Amino acid sequence: MSAPTESRPLNIVVWNENVHESRGDATVLGHYPDGMHTVIAAALREQHPGASVSTATLQEPEHGLTAERLATTDVLFWWGHVAHQDVSDEVVTRVVEAVHAGMGLVVLHSGHYSKPFTRLMGTTCSLKWRNDGERELVWTIAPEHPIAAGVPHPIVIDRQEMYGEYFDIPRPDEEVFLSTFAGGEVFRSGVAYRRGLGRVFYFSPGDQEYPVYHHADVQRVLANAAAWAAPTSERRQLTADPHPRDWFLSGGSGTQEA
Amino acid sequence: MSAPTESRPLNIVVWNENVHESRGDATVLGHYPDGMHTVIAAALREQHPGASVSTATLQEPEHGLTAERLATTDVLFWWGHVAHQDVSDEVVTRVVEAVHAGMGLVVLHSGHYSKPFTRLMGTTCSLKWRNDGERELVWTIAPEHPIAAGVPHPIVIDRQEMYGEYFDIPRPDEEVFLSTFAGGEVFRSGVAYRRGLGRVFYFSPGDQEYPVYHHADVQRVLANAAAWAAPTSERRQLTADPHPRDWFLSGGSGTQEA
Amino acid sequence: MSAPTESRPLNIVVWNENVHESRGDATVLGHYPDGMHTVIAAALREQHPGASVSTATLQEPEHGLTAERLATTDVLFWWGHVAHQDVSDEVVTRVVEAVHAGMGLVVLHSGHYSKPFTRLMGTTCSLKWRNDGERELVWTIAPEHPIAAGVPHPIVIDRQEMYGEYFDIPRPDEEVFLSTFAGGEVFRSGVAYRRGLGRVFYFSPGDQEYPVYHHADVQRVLANAAAWAAPTSERRQLTADPHPRDWFLSGGSGTQEA
Amino acid sequence: MSAPTESRPLNIVVWNENVHESRGDATVLGHYPDGMHTVIAAALREQHPGASVSTATLQEPEHGLTAERLATTDVLFWWGHVAHQDVSDEVVTRVVEAVHAGMGLVVLHSGHYSKPFTRLMGTTCSLKWRNDGERELVWTIAPEHPIAAGVPHPIVIDRQEMYGEYFDIPRPDEEVFLSTFAGGEVFRSGVAYRRGLGRVFYFSPGDQEYPVYHHADVQRVLANAAAWAAPTSERRQLTADPHPRDWFLSGGSGTQEA
């Protein structure tokens, strides 16, 4: 029952659709010359020096998410925006099943509409939005939550896209952050879920047009989220099996799994 | 903002895969000569005399769930077991989208593994089971919940299939019932969710081999669930739309929708 | 199991400490010449024409909340601010026990620090605040919740005291409203709880220095909250009693209570 | 923001009313010659070798819970049954305020009716019971929860007092265990809450008449609960303070606390 990462490094993969970057959007490349994923990965490496952090993109074979690679991924970060429909259903199923079996998933910003997130939520994940470069304040409403550790109250992000309620998500298992915007809107910007044996965290700050992933406090949240989402036991499939009467009496203490 | 059913009858559709019955399973036909759906529908009619209650089955064109019919369905009951994979994805998407837009859904027993339920939950919905005809007790843990109104504590079901934890569902928004079985297992047997603008209730008692849907208390739960799941406003799509600054100042009181 | 108010009018009592008014605070009396409670009560009367709505204040014997009166109160509204400590513990215990037995309680604004509310929450109920007459926007995050029915998204309150997070309350059973303020803060401004057999709703808009209780949308929320908090069964005490084996087999269907 | 126990041992205090033992109940002394607290403390010492584990009882001055001692207690265990009313309100307030400021609290069995627990819950905490020495099965419904780590599914306790629903507690923040009893009842036997900055865990197995605290799996749960409830930041009071406009802009990153 020991954590899988006790005897090896924490294995983090940062996935980015990498389309804004690939097609040469000047604003995006200004902030992220090598892609958002590289900045996010560098931040995670700095804060988790013992971890193995790598990246994957839509353009790679199987989007860089082969079954073999996912099998040893502890936490997957997901950034997508304009190419959600280009992600193959086979890879999405693979990601969803990995979460069910214990993999952590951290979904970023416009990933709210991604296939893996909407399939894990079961809702439309729709929201209100406005790209007006306005100030976002990220308030902590779970002060002792590990994802909020070391994070100021509020985080001040000078320029950001606005995401506003109603955000059509299931009731979160844990609400960590609420954001307000200069225009007056509010958004549940940091929400946590269990899905099967895996943990899912959605964090909304991070539009491609603003340097949000360079923000030290945002990086701290991402690093905290990676630690929080990491599995605590070996990955396993949940199945529906018949159980004869008194099946639980046959084993010794500690032998059955939930 | 008035409830859609204020000016017309509550419209309930009971869907059944109807496969055990169609292929002539003697035990099932013994309890339900015209199919489980007819017994459930009759019970709902009796308890909601003003409602319009009809049935639909897998074998009908589009499984009896055309877009036109679903558009005016307030609450859909769903019973499936051996033919989940035979339900067309197109119809499933239609059902899921109707829930997102406000339709109520009541999922019964082995429907835990149905396509609409697993898509709305985002988990595997796996569980433990044993068909040994043992006593199930259904305990209320939300005494004032409308779905538990008029229901004894516990409901005693003399013979039932056992469903046991771990039941791989998201944390319920509301837990109404917990069941215990003679063999010692426990199951979260009555759980409620919001998905989009619609309500979803899962209720596990009801195997095809036992006359559970003839049980007066079970019928009461189903009738309560229909009332609880009925939409309270007109169906509408949730979408992600841009909103200019101060969009909310233009309208008068009561004009914006969440 | 029928609702207690089916055969008689819904009985609402609006309690106000009535201290700002009694001591002649000019601003408060400007908005509420006869006290905030009279304005709230008038609004409830208008929206629930069939209900019996009365008021009670700190200055009355037993603060107007005798055992006899509370025994038939369906929903109690509570407004307090500077005199929380002047409310007798005996009356507070009476209120708390009435909630446990099924009475609804709607706590307003600075009532977050009242004895009944803090005793029902079990937390400090502390928060951040600033009285700067700034705009509050009240956003709905539970679009189909009955307390939000007919309410615009957002409610716009031109001038209000700011209440901000961290608001030290238990995780709400239901979150209905989130407020933002011109200064950038956020607040969980409409939160719902079950405590025993009773329902509790806290709604923060409503400082004594601003005419918030004259606001049509705020009045609508209060009326909705009264309907939501009203008990659905006869009041009863929850106790710890011994139960012999098979106690539940002796009665007929529907005879046991949770 | 580092955990307070990083630079010193985890400090656990096991409190027992110690009345059954003091008055010489033969059955209790048969299982626990030196009191239940000594067996619990020994188990915690064994599983947390680096921790400082001590005991306190009702009979000591200030019940062994002086302000000074509580100030450095990370996790307090609480066992009470027949002497809840003999615990001084002053000490209870001290315990509750310590929880609000970050101390962990683990409440055991008949402690459901203790003053600290009922004050933190805000409900009656009533339940059904029967002392018939029947088998209890403790099922995990949160398989990856740290309190369930290494625990079999189910834990089998051969003889126990029955505690049954309806258990009048607020909706738990996390449900970890459900128990069933040979007589058919069910109980939410492992439930977790946040109250202020502190964590509270209630675990029902453990009647004085049965050797439950000698059970290896129960001991594992208690040890897990101690680790889970331990504070992650320095203790601090939550207060309601005025905040001028833009107060959050003055500090540098990481300087404000929620």
UniProtKB/TrEMBL annotation, chains A, B, C, D:
<feature type="compositionally biased region" description="Basic and acidic residues">
    <location>
        <begin position="233"/>
        <end position="246"/>
    </location>
</feature>
<protein>
    <submittedName>
        <fullName>ThuA domain-containing protein</fullName>
    </submittedName>
</protein>
<dbReference type="InterPro" id="IPR029010">
    <property type="entry name" value="ThuA-like"/>
</dbReference>
<feature type="region of interest" description="Disordered">
    <location>
        <begin position="233"/>
        <end position="258"/>
    </location>
</feature>
<dbReference type="InterPro" id="IPR009381">
    <property type="entry name" value="Trehalose_catabolism_ThuA_prok"/>
</dbReference>
<dbReference type="Pfam" id="PF06283">
    <property type="entry name" value="ThuA"/>
</dbReference>
<dbReference type="InterPro" id="IPR029062">
    <property type="entry name" value="Class_I_gatase-like"/>
</dbReference>
<feature type="domain" description="ThuA-like">
    <location>
        <begin position="33"/>
        <end position="229"/>
    </location>
</feature>
